[in-house]
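During the second year of the project, the team shifted from modelling isolated chains to modelling whole assemblies. The rationale, set out in the original proposal, was that interfaces cannot be judged from single-chain predictions alone. As a representative example for this report, we include one of the complexes processed in the last quarter. Its constituent sequences, exactly as entered into the pipeline, are reproduced here:
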Amino acid sequence: MPASPSIRVREVSRRFGHRWVVRKVSLDIVPGEAVMLIGGNGAGKTTLLRVLAGLLKPSKGTIELTGTVGMVAHHTMMYDALTARENLAFFARLHGVPRDEWLDHLLELLGLSHVAHERIGTFSRGMLQRLAIARSLLHRPDVLLLDEPLSGLDDAAAQVVLQVIQELKSRGASLVIATHQLVELVSVAERVGIMVQGALVALEPIEGRDAAAVVARYRELVTHAA
Amino acid sequence: MDSPDNGAYMVAAYIVTAVVVLGYAVMLYLRIRKEKRRNT
Amino acid sequence: MTRRERALTTAHRGTIITGIALLGLVGVYVRALMFTPMERSQGLAQKIFYVHAPVAWAALLAFGITGLLSLLYLMLRDRKLDLIAAASAEVGVAFAVVMLTTGPLWGKPVWGTWWTWDARLTSTLFTFLLFVGYLVLRGALTDFEVRGRFSAVLGVMALVLVPFIHVTVYWFRTLHPDPVVMKPEAPSLPSVMLVTLLTSMAVCTLLYVGFIMQRYALAVLRDVREEEAAGGLS
Amino acid sequence: MPRSTTASVAFAVAAKDLKVELRTKTAFVSSLVFAVLVLAVLYFARDKTTVGDFDLAPGALWVTFTFAGMLGLNRAFLLERENRALDGLRLTPASATGIFLGKVMGNLVFLGVVELVSLPLFILFYDVPIWSQLPILVAVIAMATVGFVAVGTLLSAMVVRTRFSEVMLPVLLLPFLVPPIVSAVQLTWRILALRPLSELTGWLSLLGSFDIIFFTLSLMLFEAILVE
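Output from the structure prediction step:
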């Protein structure tokens, strides 16, 4: 009996004004699984993630989510004038999470201990991304939503993020990762979802296919859908 | 006591009322007509 | 009947009602100017009252409806309520413009100053500014869902504010000695004047109904066009 | 999983707002400079012999506080718009009430400090019997500021999501200022003129009921603004 899904999405659509940006998406994700979402700009990946995170209410359809959600988006969602540790401490307090050792562990895990007391306004893209990941893990979420987690990262920073993803999966978290960087992420995802103009046109197991094969599949679907 | 000779104000007020009310009515009518044409 | 057809019939009916109301207004003009006796102490300028008071009534009616519909919208989230509330606000602003121009025209000859800071006139001025702000806010928001929610919030706040403004201005106002003769409440009018006033109020209310139907229909027609342009959910 | 209570959220949000403000100081300095500017202009713009201190003082005080305050009100939510930090807040279990109360507290402290600093300046410019009446005057200032900040915080939460928030806030807020600020000016004038308490009760009750009604209303309506 497969594990009960931690995310159950049924016919979810979302519009901005009259434009439907996400169209009738259905998907179930079980604990310990990572699903990769690929699709062009404007395919609706980010909007779908924001709906899953609860930041946007679905215009139609339902979402059932067991446990708590964490999210890493394009924007850091933190305060430039505060230091790395102050930002984490602030959000930890809102989550009602006891601070200190867990914070230091996260900063350690993401290689930010040496800049913990610097204002994040001075941070590089890679450092901000890793801090955003730390923030998303504060309350040990059961579901983690990552929007382009590797964009703007150098190889070393990307490796750290991939490691964290593996570790989370092994501890039973479910992940949804929207990305353009298939090469690195295809190794950590069990399934790939392909979005075209707001619709989830395919959701298939990756089964060891490499990045090139997945890209070919994507092109086939995009030309088919056009 | 004869009444103050302020008829001019009355005329002005009635004219202003007519202008604004009629103006708004015409503007509404034209906006609807323009929308009807774009809407077919 | 599609949404567009329903809007077209509403627009049509609204235009007819507005037409009838405008004819009514002509009737009120004739009656007020020719068949209603002049009030001796204020002179002819007193006749401004027959347009000023009804228009003020229509403006406050419009704003009140916007406020109530805003409250309902926040509860029911039905877009129809939002569009009617917005239409009513615009019509209310139009009536308020008439009030704020005829007010001083009446104030100058009768009380010697263009702006008497009379409680009702001043509170309508601030209510007017409030709803101009409402329309400005709507104009600045593109997504209709956010626009509906935010203007409903402002509409409810405005509804609660109007009585406060009235009390504040009234208390402030009664501290200064009354400038001259008569305060523009509805004085006990001899019947012939009262009939003129009441017909004028009826005409203005009908005008309000005609205007709001037209403005609402216009908003729906625009919305339908935008919706079709954006394509459906297929 | 320990829950964060509304109170802990409110204090965390207020503390964060003020810490960021202490670090950047932009809004604080501009509010203060504005306050000094208005006080000076009003002081030098009159002929002391014709316009007495008593006539000008209440107006000058409240024009300064109102506009300096309005300048600082947007800051609280512009802070959240940078990096879309508000989304970060909404991802936590923090309630809309908690966030609103935090923002209001932050604004109240911010405004309180601006008022605290410009009050002595005010005393410098106008010799009116402030010291003997300080407690009641401070109470009136506090009451007016609470009403003004509650509505201003709600409106600025909306306005920062439009393109021209700097201009939009005064346009929307002006009518809401009439009851609290007119009451405050009336009260200040009577207080400085050492009028008996009986002459104050009317305006105090108006100001008090405005605060209670609009604080609750803004609190309840804030959720409708926050949710997307």
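Chain C is about 80% helix and 0% strand. Residues 3-37+46-226 of chain C form one domain.
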